[in-house]
Design a protein that fits this description.
The chain is an alpha+beta fold. The protein has helices spanning 2-49, 51-69, 72-81, 109-118, 143-148, 180-186, 189-197, 204-214, and strands at 86-97, 99-108, 123-126, 132-141, 149-153, 158-163, 171-177, 199-200.
C-alpha cells in the first residue's frame, strides 16, 4: 500500500516537473524570439549602414581616377599622340607675369609620356606642323618679369603691369580702372607719386600687396 502510494506520488511529481519544464521551455523560446526581433533589425540596419560608405568610397575612387586621367583635352591629346611616332617638343612655362619656352628637340611617344608622368601638372597640346607643346602654369613671376616689372597707371587710368618703366608704355596686363579723385584725396602724396612713377615689382608678395592696396580705389562696373 505504501509502495503504491509512493509510486502515485512520484508520478504526480513527474507530471508537475514535466509541465513546469515545458512552461520554462516555452518561456525561454518566447524570450529568445523577442530578443531576436529586437536585435536582428539592429544587426540588419548595421549591415545596411555599411553600404553608403562603400558607395561613397567607390564614387571617390572613380572621381580620383577621373581626376588622374585628366580633362577631355588631355584624353584627346593622348589619343592623338598615340597616332604619331616622333614629334618636335617644346615646354612652355606660363607665369603670372611672363612666359618662357625651351625646345627639347625630337622625342618619341614614350619619351613624351615619360615627361608627362614626371610632371603631372603639364598639359600637352599639338601646335602647327605637328609640334607638341607641353604647358606648365606657374603661380610666380618669370625671371625676366622679376627684373623688369612695374605697376602704374596706363593712359586710361587703369592699374596695369608694365614691362619696364611706365613711360615706355609696354603694358603686360591691365587689372582695373582706378577712382583717381578718391585715391588722391585719401592717399599720401608720396604714395601717389610712387604709383605714377611706377612701383617696382620683384616677387609675388609685392605683386599681391600693390593689387590689394589699390583695389580699394577700383571703380565699380
Amino acid at each position: 500500500m505504501n509502495a503504491t502510494r509512493i509510486k502515485k506520488k512520484l508520478q504526480k511529481q513527474w507530471r508537475w516537473w514535466k509541465r513546469r519544464s515545458l512552461a520554462l521551455g516555452l518561456s525561454s523560446l518566447v524570450i529568445v524570439m523577442v530578443w531576436g526581433s529586437m536585435y536582428l533589425p539592429d544587426k540588419v540596419q548595421s549591415l545596411m549602414s555599411t553600404k553608403p560608405p562603400v558607395a561613397i568610397e567607390t564614387l571617390q575612387f572613380y572621381q580620383q581616377n577621373e581626376a588622374m586621367d585628366g580633362t577631355l583635352e588631355d584624353v584627346n591629346f593622348r589619343k592623338e599622340l598615340n597616332k604619331t611616332k616622333v614629334n618636335e617638343v617644346i615646354v612652355r612655362h606660363s607665369y603670372v607675369c611672363g612666359e618662357e619656352e625651351r625646345a627639347l628637340g625630337k622625342l618619341n611617344t614614350d619619351e613624351i609620356y615619360n615627361l608627362l608622368n614626371e610632371h603631372p601638372s603639364w598639359k600637352g597640346q599639338f601646335s602647327g606642323q605637328g609640334k607638341v607643346v607641353l604647358n606648365e602654369t606657374i603661380l610666380d613671376l618669370s625671371p625676366t618679369c622679376k627684373q623688369r616689372a612695374y605697376m602704374s597707371l596706363d593712359k586710361d587710368g587703369n592699374l596695369s603691369l608694365f614691362d619696364g618703366p611706365p613711360e615706355q608704355d609696354k603694358v603686360i596686363k591691365t587689372f582695373f580702372q582706378l577712382d583717381i579723385s578718391s585715391m588722391e584725396s585719401s592717399l599720401p602724396e608720396d604714395a601717389l607719386r610712387h604709383l605714377y612713377d611706377g612701383i617696382r615689382i620683384q616677387d609675388m608678395d609685392e605683386y599681391n600687396s600693390v593689387l590689394s592696396t589699390f583695389s580699394d580705389y577700383a571703380r565699380e562696373g
